[in-house]
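Example record used in the benchmark description.
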Amino acid sequence: METPGDFQQAGAGEWSDGPLVVGVPWEFDGRLVRAAAGLAAIMGVHLICAFVDPASYLTEWEPAGVLDGTSLDPAPNVEAEYPASQLLSCLEGILGPPGGAWSFRVLNGEVAHALDRLAQSADAAALIVGGQRPGRIAQMGRLLEGSVSVSLTRLQGRPVLVVPHAGQ
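Model output (structure tokens):
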């Protein structure tokens, strides 16, 4: 049997001291947020809860340095803010009010790319996402759009933690 090594040296220079980024879908499993918050507390880092708005896109053809999110609906729509405000309310029910320990961001564009951009800009230590949802509708979505966790592992070199849904 091997004896435990010196873990202080094992990860030297590999981990950022930055925050953890958790991708939170509209209908999320509370285990995802609790696991992310627990890991952030253990690591002593800030937690960024990120929601990628499915009703918007990122206008990436704008000049360099300008990344505006624009709604797919040409008219301003108060209802478009519903998912984000509802999600924030649910997160506050689990984590308490946002502040020093955690924050909430609404992103635009394709989910994996939006989370990757946020992780890069925040110099995140790791990304946390939920595992594959069960059911045929979720399976069809994965066939059409692909898996967010797989896409993230291909886009960037940060660790990606996948938290399985309850019952899996």
